[in-house]
Automatic annotation (TrEMBL):
GO terms for molecular function: protein tyrosine phosphatase activity. Residues 108-255 form the Tyrosine-protein phosphatase domain. Signal peptide: none annotated. Keywords: Membrane, Receptor, Transmembrane, Transmembrane helix. This is Receptor-type tyrosine-protein phosphatase H.
Length: 270
């Protein structure tokens, strides 16, 4: 009886070992098959996507370059890009632009790819020796054809420059996008406000963020305080209304020579 028990236990051990080894072999074989299948699927999907993109573009009357693997073509006159979208039509426009066609490609995705083919315009004025240090960042310059020119002060190089651009829209150049002033460009900033009769300033940064200076403080801090950037304008804080996360400050800008005065509202984070 004892001999039989030992033999039965040994047989069971051998059987368990055999099943374990077979399980490992089958698992590894299945894993390799799965990885191979995924690799083939990914390669097939990539090729299918490229083929569908080419087909979609050809259907739209665009061309691809046979000399290269793939080139995103330019828009043609047959498919104009809409630049004026009525507010009432905007929801339907978004649905139409983001809907995928039978080739799993949306109009919005194709238009987005076109951005890379837009040529870079000239920004030579911003890089002139007298202007280069008037830019807060060395990789963000206003284009020559859309920059905001200031009235030149005789004998002062760079007096007509500020890093600011007109924002062309439905109402023409009604808005201006500008870099936050440096200490040495506060005068330029207020001259721009005066010359272009700017009524409201929306400041999208704090003066200091994460211990880094993002903007010089170009307005008076205390009520009724006056600063004189340059020698032509004075700026006085008329009122300041605090809210939970921002301030609304009323500033009076006065021309020192002729005495004319204008009001400007500053919206800034608290």
């Amino acid at each position: 009886m004892k001999q039989i028990l030992i033999s039965t236990g040994t047989a069971a051990l051998v059987l368990v070992t055999f099943v374990f080894i077979c399980s490992i072999i089958l698992f590894k074989r299945k894993d390799k098959t799965k990885m191979k299948s995924q690799s083939k699927y990914q390669e097939s999907s990539s090729k299918r996507l490229e083929r569908l993109e080419r087909h979609e573009l050809r259907e739209r009357g665009w061309r691809d370059d046979d000399d290269s693997d793939y080139t995103w073509p330019l828009f043609t006159d047959e498919i104009p890009v809409r630049s004026d979208i009525p507010v009432s039509e905007f929801p339907d426009y978004v649905i139409d632009m983001t809907a995928e066609n039978q080739h799993n490609t949306s109009k919005l995705a194709i238009e987005y790819q076109q951005l890379s083919s837009v040529p870079t315009l000239s920004y030579e004025v911003a890089c002139l020796p007298q202007n280069i240090n008037l830019n807060r960042f060395r990789n963000i310059y206003p284009y020559d054809d859309s920059r905001v020119p200031l009235k030149e002060i005789p004998g002062e190089l760079g007096s007509d420059y500020i890093n600011a651009s007109f924002v062309s829209g439905y109402c023409g150049n009604r808005y201006i996008a500008a870099q936050a002033p440096l200490n040495e460009t506060i005068d330029h900033f207020w001259r721009m406000v005066w010359e272009y009769e700017i009524e409201a300033i929306v400041m999208l940064t704090k003066c200091v963020e994460m211990t880094r200076e993002k903007s010089a403080q170009y307005w008076p801090e205390s009520l009724c305080e006056t600063i004189t950037p340059g020698d032509r304008l004075s700026v006085t804080l008329s009122s300041s209304t605090p809210y939970a996360e921002y301030y609304v400050r009323k500033l009076l800008v006065k021309h020192v020579c002729d005495g004319f005065c204008a009001c400007c509202i500053l919206f800034a984070f608290a």
